[in-house]
Design brief:
Order of helices and strands: HEEEEEEHEHEEEEHEEHHHHE
Strand order of the largest sheet: 2-3-1-14-13-12
Shape: globular
Helix content: 25-40%
Number of strands: 14
Radius of gyration: 25 Å
Oligomer: single chain
Length: 297
């Protein structure tokens, strides 16, 4: 079976919603929804009857994009033959297209090395890629030291999936490898929780509770903190006194934390990790998450 045929079989068997393809062998024809770049090097395959909500009016070389299920998805293939200037120009074009689009996924074979994503060294391409993506405020999905390319001359991490922070909060699962692609590139598989329509914002009100007042802690906080009463400060003003009351009562709140029903917090150091694991299990079971595959070729 050819690699292209295996790609089609794998995507259909695993019921992917979206496949992000780099360095494909050929474009798929109708009835498939297949969006490719001008060079037929990068593509996005949309399945499951999902509609393409937006797409570029004109094909660009080495990358394409589409908006599906409210997510802007960019597929890129930066071949090794590109010069440094051509690589920088490609990234500049991608940045221009992606800058104002959210939520965002930028995935592709960049043929760039950096210790930021587990490479043993950082190359010029890696530095250029980091600089180009910094204004987009994206995070890397496939972190760690699992190689995405395994060949006769060694292994490396060159297939990368970046996403805007709000999508990092919706990651349900992520896997590098595990599928037979007959390629020396590993597949990157991930599932995203479908976003719920935003509900009305709940206003948080702060009120005093006299019965629960810890008078000793309140007096310590009020009398022991002299910053508000320093010369030239706000200690004698209404604003200064109110700020001091808030701080004293906040100190008490730390001693008796309020109940937070249903809040799950991961203890990792990364803010992104904490947010990812604070999703509600009930929401995950109510609807199958969006399933994506990258680096399938």
């Amino acid at each position: 079976m050819s690699a292209q045929s295996l790609l089609e079989q794998t995507v259909l068997e695993h019921e992917f919603d979206i496949a992000i393809v780099s360095d494909q062998y050929r474009n798929l024809q109708s009835p498939y929804t297949w969006l490719a770049d001008a060079n037929k090097q990068a593509a996005i395959w949309i399945l499951g009857g999902h509609q393409v909500q937006e797409r570029p009016t004109r094909a660009s070389p080495f990358f394409t994009w589409a908006r599906v299920k409210g997510i802007y998805i960019f597929s890129i293939y930066a071949p090794p033959r590109l010069t440094d200037d051509e690589f920088a120009a490609l990234l500049s074009d991608i940045e221009d297209e992606a800058r104002r689009r959210r939520p965002l996924i930028v995935a592709g074979d960049f043929n760039a090395w950096s210790t930021e994503w587990g490479s043993v060294r950082t190359t010029h391409r890696g530095m250029v890629l980091l600089d180009a993506l910094a204004p987009l405020d994206v995070v890397l999905f496939n972190t760690g030291d699992t190689p995405t390319f395994v060949g006769e001359q060694g292994q490396s991490i060159i297939d990368l999936t970046f996403a805007s922070d709000e999508l990092a909060q919706r990651v349900v699962s992520l896997q590098v490898g595990g599928l037979d692609t007959t390629s020396n590139h590993q597949a990157i598989l991930y599932e995203l929780e479908d976003a719920r329509p935003p509900g009305p914002a709940q206003r948080r009100s702060c009120r005093w509770s006299s019965p629960s007042l810890n008078r000793e802690a309140f007096q310590t906080g009020w009398g022991g903190d002299r910053r508000f009463g320093a010369p030239g400060g706000d200690g004698g003003s209404a604003r200064g006194r109110h700020g001091r009351r808030l701080r004293c009562c906040d100190d008490q709140d730390e001693q008796t934390p309020p109940k937070r029903a249903g809040l799950l917090v991961d203890g990792g150091d990364s803010c992104a990790q904490r947010r990812v694991f604070s999703c509600s299990p009930a929401r995950l079971e109510s609807k199958r998450p969006t399933r994506l595959g990258h680096a399938l070729r």
